[in-house]
Design goal:
The protein has 2 helices and 14 strands; from the N terminus they run αβββββββββββββαβ. By secondary structure, the protein is mainly beta. The chain is rod-shaped and about 90 Å long.
Length: about 210
């Protein structure tokens, strides 16, 4: 198993493992995003199968410019795929693989890039404010959610106006619109009026402000 001390392994086997793993023994074939937080990694062992005890899956978030690689260890020697989970949503990652035998690491594979899938926004629009164009025309304005909470491409916003607990108006605007004049306000009146806004992607809507 991984971590076995080299002195427990015959010298000729260690030497053979070093020789075999010094060549390209693994090929990274595909990276397939399976959700907004998971990627399936598929590979093939080209040669020296007897000296591949497991695989180190190394990956890093390139969207944020991280230089440090994360590590997942696959201890099943015969495995040809593995799903990495707990990734960031709608984020680009760089992957490569390293085969190992006991404490000996082989040559790294080729590298590939992948982007996790979109998800709904995880935060509401910020700084929602109610104002007045004139005495009978109120408007609402807002700022977009923090970019790290987009989790995809923002397609627009939904604005909901309530009087007490009753929804009296709803409207949808595109992603570049950050304010709207509220319709029919003279009929609604301002008593008990509340406005809230949410952002949405192709996957669905985020939380209301």
């Amino acid at each position: 198993t991984q971590g076995t001390h080299l002195r427990d392994v015959p010298v000729h086997q260690i030497n053979e493992a070093r020789t075999r793993l010094a060549t390209k023994v693994i090929q990274l074939l595909n990276l397939t995003p399976t959700s907004s937080t998971a990627v399936r990694v598929t590979w093939e062992i080209v040669t020296a199968e007897d000296y591949v005890e497991g695989i180190y899956v190394r990956f890093r978030d390139v969207s944020g410019g991280a230089n440090q690689y994360n590590l997942a260890t696959v201890l099943n020697a015969g495995a040809l795929h593995y799903t990495v989970t707990n990734l960031q949503k709608y984020t680009k990652y760089d992957f490569f693989l390293v085969p190992f035998f006991k404490m000996i690491e082989g040559q790294p594979s080729n590298s590939k890039m992948v982007q996790t899938l979109e998800d709904v926004p995880s935060a509401p629009p910020e700084d929602v404010q109610l104002g007045w164009v004139n005495a009978s025309a109120p408007y609402v304005k807002w700022a977009s959610p923090p970019p790290q909470h987009y989790n995809g491409i923002l397609l627009g916003y939904k604005v909901q106006v309530k009087q007490n607990t009753k929804v009296v108006s709803q409207m949808t605007v595109n992603a570049t619109t950050m304010s709207v004049i509220l319709p029919n306000i003279s009929a609604i009146g301002v008593q008990g009026m509340g406005v809230r806004v949410l952002a949405y992607t192709a996957v669905g809507v985020g939380p209301y402000s």
